[in-house]
Structures are given as C-alpha cells and as structure tokens.
Queue: 3 jobs
Job 1
Amino acid sequence: MNQGFLDRSSDGQWRLSPKAMRRLGETALRDVAQQLSSRAANANCDVPEPRVELTGATRPWQFGDTEPWNVTRTLTNAVLRQAGTKADKPRIRRFRVTVDDVEVSDTETRTQAAIALLVDTSFSMVMENRWLPMKRTALALDHLVRTRFRSDALQIIALAVTREP
C-alpha cells in the first residue's frame, strides 16, 4: 500500500514526498499542454528552437527517437553481428542493417533562460476560483524546467495586494 507519496516529518506531520511532487508536476504539465494544444492547434508560433548538442554517448534506437543516428556505431553493430557467419573465400561481403543495430547519438538541450513567474496570492484569487489553476500552472512550469530545461532558472514571485482601510 505504501507507494512513497507521503513522508512523515520530524514533528510527526505527513508531507508530500519528492516522488509525489514529481508526479503532480507531470500531471499538471500534461494537463496544461493539452489545454494549450487544444486552444492553439493551428496557431503559428515563432518560437526559436532550442540548441541541441551531442553529448558523445550513444544508445540503442527506440521507437519515436528523433536524435540523429550514429552511423559508425550502427554499421559496427551490423558487421559484428554478422562476423560469425561462414564465408567460402575472402570477398567483399554485404551485410544488412537491422533495427537492433541502430544506435542514436544522445543529445542535450542547451538553453539558458531566466524565467520569472509572478503569482497573485491575494484573496481575490481564491474568491474568483483562480487559485487552483494558478498553482497547477506554476507546478507544471516548475516540472518542465526541472526535467527538460535544467540549465534554465525559474523564480516564482508571490504578490499579495491588500487594501488599506
């Protein structure tokens, strides 16, 4: 039953674990992305593509990978896989590359941005039912920066406007 979503603090209070926070962030990000994609399905956004750099590592290709093939490793895998087959006489050998031979070069997104999210924490946000969407958006943005854009910096600035009597 214990799935690791709650931790007990030193004062005996139950708190969300880092695992739970990651799960909440993933869910919030997925929900926000779905809402945005349904609203702007045909919108043309002129957002520059992040710079992608090779890390030097390779890994086996998986369905859906968009990283570039590492041709040297792919051909080496195909040759080594077929090296044990018999040949009557030395000749130029043909070999086939299969999906299992393909390796892709790992890439890393290199973006560096400072992101400031100004959050209204005044009572009117609660009264107008905007508190939960604001928290979910902030959580989704935090998850996106922590998982996909690690070199970026996110600062959340809370602003509470109160009226003077």
Note: Helices lie at 18-39, 71-82, 123-127, 131-147.
Job 2
Amino acid sequence: MLDKNGIAKRIAQELEDGMYVNLGIGIPTLVANFIPKGMTITLQSENGILGTGPYPKDSDVDADLINAGKETVTVLPGASFFDSFESFGMIRAGKVDLTVLGAMEVSETGDIANWKIPGKMVKGMGGAMDLVASAKNIIVAMQHTNPKGESKLLPKCTLPLTGVKCVKRIVTELAVLEITPEGFKLLERAPGVSVDEIKAKTAGKLIVEGDVLEMKI
C-alpha cells in the first residue's frame, strides 16, 4: 500500500498542463512536490498566494511564506499575493480547475465530510465549502480507513457534510476510485494490494469490472 507521499504522487498524475489547482490541508499539499517536469501548474492557496511552489528545504525556509495550513512554502517566479477577499473571489468565480481535499468520509454518491467531528473543537470549515461548491473537479486524498480500521468510504456520510455529490475521484493508500451513479468504481489498486482487501475495507457499494490494473507510481 502507499504512504502519504505515494498518494500525493499518484494524484499528481491527474494534473494537466495549464491547470489552476488548490491543494487542501494535509496529504493534498504534498502534491506540490510531485508536479511532472515540464508541466505548468499554478497552485492557489486560499490564504492569498497564486504561484505556490514545493515545500522548502531547511535552508530556504521563510517564515513569512505560509500556505492555508500554516506550513512554510516556496513561491515560483511570477507569484502574487492578495487578501482573502480576492482569493475567495477567484474560487467562487470558478477559476480553480481542480481542488484536492482530504476527507473524513466520502459517500458512494460523492458527498464529502471533511471539516467537523461532533463534540470535538474545530477552528472552522476553512475554504472547503467554497471549493467544493465552485471547483470544476474535486479529487479526495485520504486514508481508506479511520484509526479504528473502519471504512471511510460509506453508503452515506455520518458526519456533517461539506458538499453534496461533488467528489469525482478518490485516491487512498489502497486504490483509485471514481464516483459513478452505481457507486465507487475501482480503477486501480496500489502495488501489493488485492481487490479482496479493497472490498473488505469499502463499506459503500464497490464496482469491480474485469482485471483491475496496478497503479504505476
């Protein structure tokens, strides 16, 4: 199965030249480290950066350059800075081609819950609700199961929803799945992972058609 970097590396294969992409907090931010050479991708961070680069080396850390998750980042030549008003104007106007988000749960119909666990303190929903309502494409980067070993791919989300019927594709440490009208369609399996293991760890309806290819990482 994949580690967090492996998930991010696989998601980077979904990028297309010229895209404007927003990376959510957690695993999604790692995608910045795996953008294919020769491809022009403009990363937007909702705290006010257009042109975010990969994570900095220790010698290049600038405490004034942070992403929405308060992690230090780099910026690429031509990057720009702006306030949250302008940042969310870009998002709400549909200027973001792809957003990659983490999730606590995803339903077989493409609903996502990623901002609150009842009874636990949270700082707020961040930009997730704006992103899922406005981005042209949404990919979820997440672990297949929670710390208790319970599936996070469900018939119906049990946590407060962030968005309804908005997720297009999911990449976990076990598999790549697509949301279809019939349920989760299994597209690829991680190296060394069997279809049976994916079935056992997917609570929602799983569609398996023919031989499932192994991911190329």
Note: The CA atoms of residues 48 and 82 lie 5 Å apart.
Job 3
Amino acid sequence: MGVLDGKVILVTGGGNGIGRECALLAAREGARVLVNDLGASVGGKDEGSAGPAEAVAAEIRASGGQAVSNADSVASFTAVQRMVSQALDEFGRLDSVINPAGILRDGMFHKMAETDWDDVIAVHLRGAFNVSRAAVELFRNQGGGAFVHFTSASGHIGQSNYAAAKLGVMGLSRILAMEGAAKLVRSNVIAPFAWTRMIATIPVTDEASAQRVERIRTGMRADQVAQLAVALAADQAANVTGQVFAVRGNEVVLFSQPRPLASMSRGDGWTPATLLQEALPALQPKFTDLGASASVFAYDPI
C-alpha cells in the first residue's frame, strides 16, 4: 500500500530533475500520474518537445503504473485548464498538483531584458497561479486537494526575476492555504537543494562557488526532494498546510515566514531624525544580512 493509493496527481515539469523524480515516486506510491513537461531547455527559449514527458509516463507504465503525458506550458491558463480536463478524462479525478516547473534567465538586474523578467515571472509565478486556479474549484467542490509548490532560498546575484517570482509563490501558497482551510484544500511550498540541470548552469567564479556547487552535486539529489513533495500530497498530511520547507540531502528544514522580529515605539511619534538616531540603530542587530543561502547552510548535507 502506497501513501497515494487511489490518487491522481498532476506533476508539472515532470520530464526532468525534481519533477521527474516526483512523478516516478508518486506512481510507485500508488498514484495515477499526469506528467506535464514542455520539453524545453533550461532557459525556455526553444520550441520544446513532447518527448521528455512521454518518456517518464512510459517508464511509469513499463513498471506497471498508470500515467499519461502532456507537453503544454504552465504559463498558459488555457493550457493548464486542458491539463486538469485531461486528468479528469483519463482518470476520473484529480487530487493533488505538484508544481516544480520552471526556467532560468539569469542576469544582473541593471542589465536585465524585459523579456527575461516577463518570461520567468510567467512560468514561475503566473504558472503557480494557473495550476492553482485551474484546480482549486475542483478541490473545493470535492472536499479536499493539495498543492505542492516550489520556491527558492538561493538568492543568487543575477536572479532578481527568479527570486521575485519564487517569493511571490510563497505568498500565493499561504493565501491558498488560508482560503482553502475550511474546504480541506492544502498548499505548501518546498525550497529544494538538489543537483538538477538548473543548478548545473550556476557559474563557478571562484573556489567558494566551486565548493558550493560540488557540495550540491555530490550530496543533494532530486529524489530526496521528491520524498517530501509526495508526502505533502498524501491524505496523512491533512494537517500540514501553509508551510514552507526546504530539503537538503536527507535534511528537512521548516522555514520561518514574515513575522515581527523586534519593535520600538515612541510616545510622541517618530521623525526621520529620531528614527535615524534611535530606532534603526536599535533594530539593526536583528536585520537580515545580504548573504546568499550558502552563508546560512554552510555545512555539508546529511
């Protein structure tokens, strides 16, 4: 008996990397799987191919599971509606959406082209809206469903588009969880640390970055991330919603979310001068530094 027996799962970006591992594991855990993948390059600038999604679906079927493929883009709401309809037509229901689909268009913000900003937002943030909006009414009407979205803790220089989209996904997921609670519709987010073709594009500019990339390559696998994604889609996780997790190797991390860290008040109100003299210096020890994730997770994964 698998944790997803009888369930139908839509996995976006399922042709490679984390998405592929999520689709394969969901099938091993008893789910019928709709494997979606545009089949494009990491940058998403080519036409794409139906091959990667179908290859994963065929692998599931060859192992005795049930799966169909879809090569549409999550950036199109109409296309995502077709995915939901396809799941209903093929399998009669849809219980969860696991949504790691994404692209990268890195570049320093002061040099970033509008198209690189728009395309990354379209796939990551608009894509998260699309898959959620296309399935949420179905989930509400059937009295339950789960979204597993993906964010990032990377914060790399040159990824303003990616970071903005991924932080937006966190906000979207939280509101989905709040609004869906009464109807047993859940939404959680995972920040994955794993070697994928996206991570392979990170430029190695010095010894520190070389060590970081090697640590990810040798110690953090996509299948380790898939374990949590599939668990969050299971009925046994019915009390887990509105949370942000990270996975690093065999380590599962629960992240904080925006909450007050410290405060100061002044009975007669603040002025720019008193804020500069008193409040900001007093609050400064609680400031979040500008370090990337490597400054927080400086240790090797378990």
Note: The chain has a mean pLDDT of 91.
